[in-house]
C-alpha cells in the first residue's frame, strides 16, 4: 500500500511539473504581452516599456524567468498580477471559496440524488421512472451546460422573477449574518441547479449499471444460497462492490471542480475562479494565469491521489498493482 | 487479418453484395445505430443543400434587428445584426461537422499511433507512453484549450487543431489496451515468425484490427468537439468570422432578457446534433461489442 | 437408510420476454441418506439448473413445477422464510468458479461470520472463528487463510474454502455444482480425495454435479445421466458404468479414452443439442441416437427399471418392444 501511494505522489509531482513547464512555454511563446496591455494602445514609449519590463522581470532570459518563478512558486509566492498590481495569492484566495461553495454543493447534491435514483432504478429496471430518467440523462449529456444555465435564467429570473440572475449576493443591500447567508443561498440556487441537472445523470447511470452488474455476480448467488436476507445482501455485499465506479466518478468531478464550474460561473457572473481565469487570459496577465493554472493542476493531482487511495481502501485488489 | 487482401479479384463482386447485405441487416437490428446513421445522413444533406434550403442569406445583415420568431418571414427570428436565425442554424451544420471531423481525425490519429506504439512495443517504450497518457489525462484540457486559443488566435483552424491535440489521450488508452492484447494473438506471432518486421506488423495487423473500439470512441469525441467549440465561442474565444452555433449563443446572451430566440434555438441545434453522434457511437458499440449493451442482464 | 431427497416430475422453465426455455423436464429420482449421487451431462443438459432449483435460487420469473421432498417437506411449496431456515442449515451448495463465489472486497473471515450469523445471530466472533478453524483444518488449509481476501488465494485454496464454508452448519445434503471443473487435474484429484476423506467423519449425503464421468466413477455410488433437461439413466455407479443400458450413456463411455492402453477409436456423439424452447415429441436423444426407431421419435420412452436400483428412459429397455 505504501508503495502504491508513493508511486502516485511521484507521478503527481511529475504531472504538476510538466503542466507548469507547458504553461510557461505556451504563455511565453505566444504573441502579445502584458506590457502592451498595460501601456495601452496609444503609447509606445520605449523608455517606459523598458522600465516596465525591468519592473516585472520580463527583461531576463526565459530560463531565468522560469527558474525564478519555479523558486517562488515552491515557497508559496505566486507573484503579482501585472494588470491589477495585486498579489496573485490574494486574488485567487478571494475567488477560490466562491468556486468551491458552488462546485462542492452541486457535486454533493448530484452524487446523492444520482446515486439514490440509480439504486431505485436498478431495483425497478424497466419501470417508467427508469425510462424517463434514462431519456433525460441522454438529453442532458448533449446539452451545453452554459445553454442550460441561460435557459433557466430566462425562465426563472427574467420571466418568473423568482430568483436572481447574477452574482453571489446582493451587493447593494449590504446584508450581514443570517440574512446574508440566505441571500447567498438564493443566488446559489440557479447555478447550482444547472450544474446538478448536467452532472446528476452521470451518477445515475453509473450507479444503476454497476448495481445491476454486481447483482448478477456469482457471489451474490452464494449469499442467497445461505439464506441471507436480501436487505443484508444489498446493504453490505452489493453496495460495497457496486460503489467503486461511483467513487471514481466523484473523485474525477472533484479533481476537475474548478474547470467544471467555470462556464456556469461566467453565465451567472458568480465571482469565482472561472471569471478570474478568463480575464487573465484575455489580458495576458502572466502571473495570474500561471498562478491559476498551477493551483488548478495541483488541486487536480491532489484530489486524484486522494481518490486513488480511497479506491484502494475500498477495493483490496487494487493495492497490489 | 484484413479480409480484403485475401479475396481474389473475381470474387470481389459477390463479396460486395454480401457486405452490403450485412451492413443493411446490422443497421436494421439496432435502433440507435439506425437513428445515428440516418441523423448523420440528414446532417450531411443539410451541409450540401444549405443554400437551397435557406430563404435568407445568413451573412446578410438585414433591416430587422432582433425580430421575434415568425415576424417578416423569419421563422425563427433574427439576431441583433438582422441575420436570419434559421438560415444561420442550417449553415452552422457545416461548421459543426467540420470541427467534429477534423479534430477527431487529429485526435484519433495521434491516439492510435501513440497508444499503439506503447501497447505493441511494450517495455520501456510503453512505460514512457503510459506516463505521458496519464499526465495528459490529468491536465485540465478545457483551460489548456482556452489558453492556447487566446494566445495564438481564435480562428477556426486553430480551434480544430487544438481540440485535436488535447483530446487524444482517451483514444490512446483504448488503442494501447487493444495493442497489448492483440500482440499475444497467434496470427501476429506467426507473422513475426515468418519474418515481418515489427513496424510492418504494427501497421498491417495491430492497427487495423485494434481500431474498432477507437472508432466508436471517436464519435463520442466528435460530439465532445462540437460542445467544446461551442463553449469556446461562448467565452468569446471563438472565430467571429464563421457561423457557429456557439457564437450564436454568445451573441444572443447580450440580448437574452428581451430576445430569447437567438440563444435558445442554437442550443437546441447543438443538442440534436450531439445526440445524433451519441446514438451513432452507442450503436457502433453495440455492433462491435454486443455484450456492452446487455450489461447486467442475464 | 431412508430416502433423504425425493424429486418427482421436476420441470424448470426459464421465461423471458421472448421465449420459454424448458431446461429441466420431468426429472424424477430419489437419494438415500449417506448416498453420493453424481449427476452427469454435457453443457446445457440441465444439471446445474436442477441444483439451483432445489435451493430455489432461480429468479422469480422462472417457472418450477413438481415436487422435491426433503426432510419431510416439499421444497417447492414451503414459504420463502421456511426455505431460508433450511438453506445452509440442512442443504448447502459448493459452487464452481470459486474465484467469484465470494465477495472480492471482503475478507474471508467477514463473509464467514456473516454467513454463520444468518442462522445463529448471536454467535460471538470467537465461536465462529473456532468453528472456521476446525473446518479449515478439515480441508487442509492453514489457519492464516481466515484473514485473507479471495484474490490472495489460488483456485484450489478458494475451492477448499468454499467447501469449508458449506459445512458450517453440518448440512445433511451437500451439493457440489461443478466444484472441481475450473481446477487443474492435479488439484482436482487432491480435492476429490479430501472430500472422500472428509465423508468418513461427517454424515453428509452428497450430490456431485459434473460433466466428467471419471469424477463420478471415483467418488459416487449412484449416478444420474442427464441430457437436454431429461433424465436418461439412473442407477448404481458400478452397474451403469460397466453395463450402460441407455445409448447416450454408452456414447459417453465410448468418448472417454481408456488409461489402460487399448486404443480403440474415440467415438464422439454426432449432432447437437435440441432447441430447448420447443416441445420435443418422442425421445430427446433420438436425433443423435444410432439405435433410434420410429417409435423413439414419436413417443417419449418411460423410465423403465433395468435392474434393482437402476432405470433408463429408453424404448430399447422396454422388453416387449422391437429393438433394432
Can you tag this structure with a few keywords?
A: 321 residues; mainly alpha; B: 298 residues; disordered C terminus
Oligomer: heterotrimer
In DSSP terms (H or I, runs of 4 or more residues), the helix count of chain A works out at 13
Fraction of residues in H or I helices of chain C: 25-40%
Strand content of chain A: under 5%
Distance between the termini of chain C: 40 Å
Name the beta content range of chain C: 15-25%
Largest sheet of chain A: none
> Which class do the helix and strand fractions of chain A yield?
mainly alpha
Secondary-structure element pattern of chain C, one letter each: EEEHEEHEHHHEHEHEEHHHEE
Radius of gyration of chain C: 21 Å
Mean pLDDT of chain A: 83
The SS-based structural class of chain C is alpha/beta
Runs of chain C with pLDDT <50, length 5+? 320-324
Q: Summarize model confidence as the mean pLDDT of chain C.
A: 85
Characterize the largest beta sheet of chain C: strand count, sense, and whether it forms a barrel. 8 strands, mixed
What is the number of E strands of chain A?
Answer: 0
How many separate helices of chain C? 10
Overview of this protein structure:
- The complex is a heterotrimer of chains A (321), B (298) and C (324).
- Chain A is built from 13 helices and no strands.
- With 321 residues, chain A is mainly α.
- In chain A, helix 5 runs parallel beside helix 13 and helix 7 packs across helix 8.
- Chain A is globular, with a radius of gyration of 24 Å.
- The model of chain A has no long low-confidence stretch (mean pLDDT 83).
- With 298 residues, chain B is mainly α.
- Chain B is 73% helix and 0% strand.
- Chain B has twelve helices and no strands.
- Chain B is globular and about 75 Å long.
- The two termini of chain B are 32 Å apart.
- By secondary structure, chain C is an alpha/beta fold.
- Helices cover 30% and strands 23% of the residues of chain C.
- Chain C contains ten helices and twelve strands.
- In chain C, the strands form two sheets. Chain C has an eight-stranded mixed beta sheet, with helices on both faces. Chain C has a four-stranded antiparallel beta sheet with strand order 2-1-4-5, with helices on one face.
- In chain C, helix 4 crosses helix 5.
- The two termini of chain C are 40 Å apart.
- Classes of the chains: A mainly alpha (321), B mainly alpha (298), C alpha/beta (324).
- Chains A and B meet through helix 1, helix 6, helix 7, helix 8 and helix 11 of A and helix 4, helix 5, helix 9, helix 10 and helix 11 of B.
